[in-house]
# Entry
Amino acid sequence: MVNLTINGSPVQAAEGSTVLLAARQAGIQIPTLCYLENVQAIGACRLCMVEIEGARTLIPACVAPVTEGMKVSTRTQRVRDARKTVMELLMSDHAGDCKTCDRNDDCEFQALARDLGIRQVSWPGAVNPSHIDTSTPALVRDTGKCVLCRRCVTLCNAVQDVGALFPQHRGFKTVVGPAFGGDLDTVTCVQCGQCSAVCPVGAISEHDETGKAWAALDNPVKFVVVQTAPAIRAALGEEFGFAPGTLVTGKMTAALRRLGFDGVFDTNFTADLTILEEGTELLRRLKAAILGPDHDVQGDHHDAHAHAAPGPLPLATSCCPAWIKNCEHFHPDFLPNLSTCKSPQQMFGAAAKTYYSRRIAKHPSDVFVVSIMPCTAKKFEAARPEMEASWQRDVDVVLTTRELARMIRQAGIDFANLPDEQMDQPMGMSTGAADIFANTGGVMEAALRTAYEIVTGRALPFDGLRVTPIEGMEGIKEAALTFSDVVPEWSFLEGVTARVAVAHGLANANQLVDRIRSGKAAYHFVEVMSCPGGCIGGGGQPRMTTDAVRKSRIEAIYREDQGKGLRKSHENPQVRAAYEAFFQTPNSDLSHRFLHTGYFGRDRV
# Structure
């Protein structure tokens, strides 16, 4: 440990730590703009400057290492004046009207100005022109609002390994964006929205579709149903003053009902459906790999798609649309490994406009499906031409957690004082296994709960059904599970050790694919989520999503799981009823027609 003083008080910090981290550990807040916890410390914005005894100039705290006996001052007149000047200079080139900006009540830049006591900008002058990029279904960029903090650049390059954003030109003419001044649709952007999640201003945000949702709710012809992803219930409360990790499932349901939705349902219903479809697909691939391609789990397929030979191992999950698009651009050779299952969002849309529309005697074109998702890439996914199994767009509108919060405020709903209400049936019933889809490792854990029990007739041999080796925030996680004393139907799996891997963050996913491709690692099943922490850290969630916030949301999701009476997807009676009434059996002809799809390689720009 290193001993130093900050503002005259003794502080201890780990060797190699920075002044910024030492101050935070001591409860002293230093303003930052470009800094990103555990990711970026570049000293670019200079707002974190402090005075260090013996130093000729002020020093940025985020890159200054602590040394023994160091004396730091964070609040002298010199420091306060310097920070204020830097902030005013940044504000002088920040275009946009705060009164109409969607970040007006959630703007780090505005909050910093207020905390620094700035009431007017002292440096009027030239302002870079604003270019608004609406070229993608997921994201909107406004270059005039950009403050060149480079957070988005770091997330896109270091965390996601995509490289769609980078500083262009130099000095006053610097613009952060795609190469050659193009729009996002001209480069390889997976539309994960992590750039919008860390942007401190309104320079990058989700493509607002609340107007489309309101129009549908106001249309008397439309029967408007809503689905809510599992991650929403652990994050929506933050928009209304609740602590991170507060479960608001019941209040969220009540709010959606008061917004006027005709059916309030749960994406968890089709998360359970996904496990049955994807689990069957995994077993088909395992059987083909062990006994040969002529052996198949399902022997009664009749259409060409369902009767096609099972794909290669490892099977990779297909729930995350940014991961899918990443594969299409960067790993087209890995596409055969992707599950043919649609994501739970798209399964829900197809089921709502086929199975459910029949139940309520509505034409599919009169059923309007709204999704509430933690993810901006879900907007892109819903617009894919492959996602029209109901002979039209299966999911009509996708809203982020932040957009739903805006609608609730627009409707004047007192969210904090709403009663807890239950979702509608049949597509509102789910198991705890579906809840944990929100967390990194959750899809894998849910799949193992069902696959192990189907093969052995026994529950997964882990305490509380939780597969702890694949939980947590480590970038790549592994686990192994040996099948023993299997039921006769699955005798070919006796003694087989299933090896699985989980990755979150696309840079980690790319490393995992490289390890598989090179033969350095061999797995049977792989889960990938593009956002750090999984969907709970999605690009459409309340800002800022720090590691502490991610961990709080993750634990909330596990509490939701553990509070459920049913915790394995195959136990969901409404899913079984859907198969009996419409989809027949997992991986049947009908389930392939509506619940499965395929993907294709894309150019990399």
In short: The first strand starts at residue 2 and ends at 6. Confidence is low (pLDDT under 50) at residues 299-307. Residues 2-75 form a domain with the Ubiquitin-like (UB roll) fold (CATH 3.10.20.740). The chain has four domains: 2-75, 102-206, 212-268+345-417, 275-339+432-595.
